[in-house]
TrEMBL record:
<feature type="compositionally biased region" description="Low complexity">
    <location>
        <begin position="26"/>
        <end position="50"/>
    </location>
</feature>
<feature type="domain" description="Kinesin motor">
    <location>
        <begin position="68"/>
        <end position="411"/>
    </location>
</feature>
<dbReference type="InterPro" id="IPR016024">
    <property type="entry name" value="ARM-type_fold"/>
</dbReference>
<dbReference type="GO" id="GO:0008017">
    <property type="term" value="F:microtubule binding"/>
</dbReference>
<feature type="region of interest" description="Disordered">
    <location>
        <begin position="26"/>
        <end position="59"/>
    </location>
</feature>
<keyword id="KW-0206">Cytoskeleton</keyword>
<keyword id="KW-0677">Repeat</keyword>
<dbReference type="InterPro" id="IPR027417">
    <property type="entry name" value="P-loop_NTPase"/>
</dbReference>
<protein>
    <recommendedName>
        <fullName>Kinesin-like protein</fullName>
    </recommendedName>
</protein>
<keyword id="KW-0547">Nucleotide-binding</keyword>
<dbReference type="GO" id="GO:0005524">
    <property type="term" value="F:ATP binding"/>
</dbReference>
<dbReference type="InterPro" id="IPR000225">
    <property type="entry name" value="Armadillo"/>
</dbReference>
<feature type="repeat" description="ARM">
    <location>
        <begin position="660"/>
        <end position="702"/>
    </location>
</feature>
<keyword id="KW-0175">Coiled coil</keyword>
<dbReference type="GO" id="GO:0090307">
    <property type="term" value="P:mitotic spindle assembly"/>
</dbReference>
<comment type="similarity">
    <text>Belongs to the TRAFAC class myosin-kinesin ATPase superfamily. Kinesin family. Ungrouped subfamily.</text>
</comment>
<dbReference type="GO" id="GO:0005876">
    <property type="term" value="C:spindle microtubule"/>
</dbReference>
Length: 929
């Protein structure tokens, strides 16, 4: 259910929480058993890995709650044809809705009684059908469970009416699909919830996208751990309103395959599958909305992820089961019927195995059972409605449908809720919070860096100023000391000069006797004066030393402050580095997680690739043991062509295919021995008749070899058998494109022109007729002469050849009609351009029933395109349409012709003109008049 990356098959972006199904007032307790206690859990039947319910790995957290498949039966009213055909007989079905019983009459005195969860009469309204069948499932899906609503029954019993009716003209006729979406859209909140839709069809064992027709080969992917089935290639549309949903349904129905059979004019030839995924937020819706708008307060409080519930509703409109002799299917329609019956048979086998608690459930026999593996025996809540008709002519099909519903009632599912933690929303909130924290950190870091830079600059300025002041003070002190020293010297010199003069005077004016005393005084006087000067100089020097020490102490204090500031800056830088390291570690962790996610994605892709390779290798299988020598191989090929009855011949060819191998058989097509080539091409033709072998033949180059034989061989038998093999391969749409790409239509046209044998012409006409049924190849087929080749083969006159020609023209006309309805074609019909209209008109009332029926259908389809009306009037086709609308033995063709006549303005104008001349036509054809 998760949409993020996957780790070993489990979503990394979401964690599943599976809880038991919550019982409420809208769900009947009789349909869901109570949860077993721990002592009885071991006695519950668990689905085997191959069961429809998925692998045991999906039942992991809780045991869940057992819930039986609910089955309702709905009776279709008698139609006009049944009222006429069964007028003298009573209905074979008797309903007792108040007892929820149904009686199926064997004869007038004996009947079988069956009980269902609901019994709906032919008068039951569409609203009641929805409320008793689908509404409980829709309510479960809205609560987070998976749910399935499926319709099963014979062709023409009202399955598509019950499920897919749009009800645009009459709102009371709305089907289960439209009503389910109305309830879903009314219950969800568009702001926080979402609804997405995929619409698919399973046609001829190929899953195709009804919303994108070009997407015509969607693969099924199974989770190897949980067993969940998904279709990753399907187109998904988000639904916002009911109108867009109805437009999608209308688009899908226009692309769905339908055909005209005896049981139903517009019979569905494919299984339609509507998948609705509902994603709901359980809590925190208002908080989630405020979070999207950037509410920071919520980010601080929301540390836990919200809970998301994801429910899936699957509505399956199965194609109707039918008997070939009753439906009248032929050609490509016959192959469609085979594919439908094969898939329905596989579904029945799986339900039988689940009802009987078989250890093996053949879930891989069909893509339908693989898609529905969760609906029967799985974890989904399933409701099945079986539709039946009242006619005693179809009693056998009615009994088979009833028994299918009875067996389905025995199947029990382990119903589980699907909850996930909404890690995506939490991750988005955390990303927003992380971005805000990073921005806040960057702002704080910028402020811190600016502050550190400011403090650094201020410290540098103060240091510079202190150094400058110290240098100036030191220089001033030095200059002052020099000045004082010079003044002291000058004073000493002056004093010495004065003393010297004084001594000279005293020496000249004193007697000699006194000379000794004078000398003594003169000596004492200068001596005391010099001592005083020395003491003063020492004092000045000491003062200078003290000043210098004080300056040095101040310088040391400034340096200490600078060191302290540098240490503080280093601490802040360390903090910044730590923060940067934390950010780098967070980024590294994020990168590591992203790398791990990338590795896990690559591992998942590798596992998917290996699983695909293993599946393809298993599909191709081994080539078997080969024969030693070409002679042994040729003898085996010739021995396989000995005439035998029915299954014996097929068994011998199948045995030969296993023993010899396809490559060796194809190599014999190029043998120089003509007899060997004949026997080899017969073996290849017989193998090509089986659908299981066609893909292998084409992959091994068998188609190319057959086309080369058709081109180069001159043997009539080889060309006839090769054309038959190509006709068998042309029943597959993919092979049709390959045949056209390799020039197959040109070779078939040349063969048709050269051959005279009716059987050869029948094979060639059958191959071209199959190619005519492909919408994509019409223009190319006509451009390479396919239509002219078909018309050229009518020269044979053989009924079998004419029947194949008529079938090809009907297929071509049907494709043109569909293209005109879809708006992809606007010009005149290519059949009319190539001159096919005269032959069509000429054989519209052919005695041979197959020829007449195909020609009548071709006329009806040509008439549906208004641009062909004038040519059909001038060619006489209008009166054939009038005859068909009145005299055709098949009611569906009569109805189609009548509707075409009344809806065409050109035809109505011509009929009114004719009425004015002669009132010879019935009034029912002149409604516009």
């Amino acid at each position: 259910m998760a949409t993020g990356s996957y780790r070993n098959g489990v979503s990394k972006g979401s964690v599943k929480v599976e809880r038991p199904f919550a019982l409420n007032s809208n769900i009947k307790s009789s349909n869901i058993k109570s949860k077993p206690n721990s002592t009885t859990t071991s006695n519950l039947r668990r689905s085997s890995p191959g069961s429809l319910g998925g692998s045991a790995g999906s039942v992991k957290d809780d045991a869940g709650v057992l819930g039986r498949v609910r089955v309702a039966v709905r009776l279709r009213p008698r139609n006009g044809e049944e009222m006429v055909a069964d007028a003298d007989f009573a209905d074979c079905v008797e309903l007792q809705p108040e007892l929820k019983r149904l009686k199926l009459r064997k004869n007038n005195w004996d009947s079988d009684t069956y009980e269902f969860d609901e019994v709906l009469t032919e008068f039951a309204s569409q609203k009641r059908v929805y409320e008793v069948v689908a509404k409980p499932v829709v309510e479960s899906v809205l609560e987070g469970y998976n749910g399935t609503v499926m319709a099963y029954g014979q062709t023409g019993t009202g399955k598509t009416f019950t499920l897919g009716r749009l009800g645009e003209e009459d709102t009371a006729a709305r089907g289960i699909m439209v009503r389910s979406m109305e309830d879903i859209l009314a219950d969800i909140s568009p702001e926080v919830d979402s609804v997405s839709v995929s619409y698919l069809q399973l046609y001829m064992e190929t899953i195709q996208d009804l919303l994108d027709p070009a997407n015509d080969n969607i693969s099924i992917v199974e989770d190897p751990k949980t067993g969940d089935v998904s279709l990753p290639g399907a187109t998904i549309f988000e639904i916002r309103d009911q109108h867009s949903f109805i437009e999608l349904l209308r688009l899908g129905e226009a692309h769905r395959f339908a055909a005209n059979t005896k049981l139903n004019t517009e019979s569905s030839r494919s299984h339609a599958i509507l998948m609705v995924n509902v994603r709901r937020s359980v809590k925190g819706r208002e908080a989630a909305i405020s979070n999207e708008n950037g509410d920071a307060s919520y980010l601080g409080k929301s540390s836990k992820p919200g809970v998301i519930r994801k429910g899936k509703l699957v509505v399956v409109d199965l194609a109707g089961s039918e008997r070939i002799d009753k439906s009248g299917s032929e050609g490509h329609t016959l192959e469609e019927a085979k594919s439908i019956n094969l898939s329905l048979s596989s579904l029945g086998k799986c339900i039988n195995a689940l009802a009987e608690n078989s250890p093996h459930v053949p879930v891989r026999d069909s893509k339908l059972t693989r898609l529905l593996r969760d609906s029967f025996g799985g974890t989904a809540r399933t409701s099945l409605i079986v539709t039946i008709g009242p006619s005693p002519r179809h009693r056998g099909e009615t009994a088979s449908t009833i028994m299918f519903g009875q067996r389905a009632m025995k199947v029990e599912n382990m119903v589980k809720i699907k909850e996930e933690f909404d890690y995506k929303s939490l991750s988005r909130r955390l990303d927003i919070q992380l971005d805000r924290l990073i921005a806040e950190h960057e702002r704080k870091q910028k402020v811190f860096q600016d502050e550190v830079e400011r403090i650094t600059i201020e410290a540098q300025n103060r240091i510079s100023e202190a150094e400058r002041n110290y240098a100036e003070a030191l220089e001033n002190e030095r200059l002052q000391h020099q000045k004082d020293y010079k003044e002291s010297i000058k004073k000493l010199e002056e004093q010495w000069a004065m003393n010297q003069q004084k001594r000279d005077k005293e020496r000249s004016g004193v007697e000699p006797k006194d000379d000794s005393s004078d000398v003594k005084c003169s000596r004492e006087g200068p001596s005391s004066s010099a001592s005083e000067e020395i003491a003063e100089l020492k004092q000045l020097l000491q003062n200078e030393i003290n000043s210098r020490k004080a300056a040095e102490q101040e310088a040391n204090i400034v340096k200490a402050q600078l060191v302290q500031w540098k240490r503080s800056e280093a601490v802040r830088n360390a903090e910044i580095l730590n923060l940067r390291k934390l950010l780098e570690e967070e980024a590294h962790q994020k990168e590591k997680l992203e790398e791990e996610i990338t590795i896990l994605r690559s591992q998942l892709l590798q596992l998917s690739f290996e699983a695909d390779e293993t599946r393809r290798s298993l599909d191709r299988g081994g080539s078997g043991k080969g024969f030693s020598g070409l002679d042994s191989l040729v003898s085996q090929v010739r021995h396989s062509q000995i005439k035998d009855s029915g299954n014996g011949q097929k068994a011998s060819i199948a045995k030969l295919f296993e023993q010899v191998g396809l490559q060796k058989i194809l190599s014999l097509l190029e043998s120089e021995d003509a007899d060997v080539r004949i026997h080899a091409v017969k073996v290849v033709a017989n193998l090509a008749a089986e659908e299981a072998n066609q893909e292998k033949i084409v992959e091994a180059g068998g188609l190319t070899s057959l086309l080369m034989l058709l081109k180069s061989s001159e043997d009539e038998m080889i060309r006839r058998v090769a054309a038959g093999a190509i006709a068998n391969l042309a029943m597959n749409e993919t092979n049709q494109e390959l045949i056209m790409a390799q020039g197959g239509i040109s070779l078939l046209s040349i063969t048709a022109a050269d051959a005279d044998d009716p059987q050869t012409l029948r094979m060639v006409a059958g191959a071209i007729a199959n190619l005519c049924g492909n919408d994509k190849l019409q223009t190319k087929l006509r451009g390479e002469g396919g239509i002219k080749a078909l018309l050229g083969m009518v020269r044979s006159g053989h009924p079998d050849v004419l029947a194949q020609v008529a079938r090809g023209i009907a297929n071509f006309a049907k494709c043109e009609s569909r293209a005109a309805t879809q708006g992809t074609k606007s010009g005149r019909s290519l059949l009319i351009d190539d001159g096919a209209l005269p032959w069509i008109v000429q054989n519209a009332n052919n005695e041979a029933s197959p020829i007449r029926r195909h020609i009548e259908l071709a006329l009806c389809h040509l008439a549906q395109h208004e641009v062909n009306a004038k040519d059909m009037i001038s060619g006489g086709a209008l009166w054939e349409l009038v005859r068909i609308s009145r005299d055709c033995s098949r009611e569906d063709i009569r109805t189609l012709a009548h509707r075409t006549l009344t809806s065409s303005p050109t035809f109505q104008a011509e009929l009114r003109r004719f009425c004015s001349l002669a009132e010879a036509l019935p009034s029912t054809l002149l409604a516009p008049c």
